[in-house]
Here is the input.
Amino acid sequence: MTPYEITATCIGAAAAALAVGPSLSSTAKDITVKLAAPWRGTGTHRAPSPAELARQNHELTTRLVAADSFFIRLIEDRDLVHAQAEEAARRAAEAEQVVVCQQAEIDRLQLTVTALEAQAANRNAVSVPAGERPVDQDDEPTSPLGINVKPLQEALAISPVRAVGQA
Here is the structure.
């Protein structure tokens, strides 16, 4: 490879930045840069051979087909995702409608249960005063007509037990 030399002149701040030593003068400064270029040939344009062109054409065609099939797959996947999202939204709306209907049914049933409980309470209510209970003939009623249910101390006329030594 042949190195190529490029010479440039810097003026002003660029020259001051490139100045060597303690002097920061803004005078013009020449810079020489050597580049080794990776060019083939002797400097004249070399045309690719037909085999190289065919190889490059085949490589580019293969890449184009692969890119096309990849984008087709991406579009199919996108369409599938959109269809699934629409299906999920439809199912969610349907489920929400079912929940609303079930909640309405629950509310209706709760009102029915409340009404039935009120009817049962009214039907089974005790409307007879406590002292005038009707007595079944086979039943043994308690006092004042039947069994004496006084506390034992009163029934046996005994006093409560006291500890020895207490008055």
Q: What stands out?
A: The helical segments are 13-18, 50-123, 152-156. The two ends are 134 Å apart (CA to CA).
